[in-house]
Each structure stands twice: as structure tokens, then as C-alpha cells.
Amino acid sequence: CFTFPNGDTYEGEFRQTDYHPFERCGYGTYKACDGMMYEGQWMEDKMHGLGTISFPNGSTYKGNFVNNQFNGYGRYSWPNGCYYDGIFIGNKMKGPGKFYDENGQCWQGTFSYKTALGLQFQL
Length: 123
Description:
MORN_repeat_protein, 11 strands, single chain, MORN repeat-containing protein 5
């Protein structure tokens, strides 16, 4: 287990390079002091590939990461029970997806950051 100067920890695969004495790569778990936790794949010291991140407020994201951002297919869940299944680009809902509200109602459409074109609910 590696402990960073601020108290955050990392347990998993890493490598040493000419430029970095410690670079996360492969599979590992990072735990921040504020309660954030990421478990999944790393590349060049960044979240990259499949993984799950949990935030201190109870929200979670499980899916694909590219360069520390939600990118590709994933599921973002809020503490109130709502969740979104679909495509993300640059940490934002962008593309086809389904949003499920706290009552389990499904809303399907093409999401574009804060809007959803052609949003329809499913019975």
C-alpha cells in the first residue's frame, strides 16, 4: 500500500519510470481522505479503462474512464435512487441513454449535457 503525503492511499499495480518514481498502471484502488474511492484500471497514473468511483455524497459512477474522465458507456447513480445508464463524454451525459427517477420511471432519449432531445418515458 502506498500512502501519499496528504494521507490518500493506493493499493495495486504500479511502475517506476525515468520521470516518475511511482506511476499507477494496471488495476488498483485509490482512497482519498475526503471519502472518495476509485477501484479499477489505471494507465499512466490516470483512471483509464473500466472502474467504479464512489463520492463522499453517496453518488457513484461505474463504467469506462479515459484520462480521469467518464467516457463511453457507464452508470451514474445519485443517493436518492435516481440513475442514468448511457454514454458519457468528458464527464457529461452525452448521447443515447436512459434516466431512471426515484420512482423507477424510465426516461429514454438522446442526452446532451443538461438537455435531452426527444426524451420519452417508458411504460
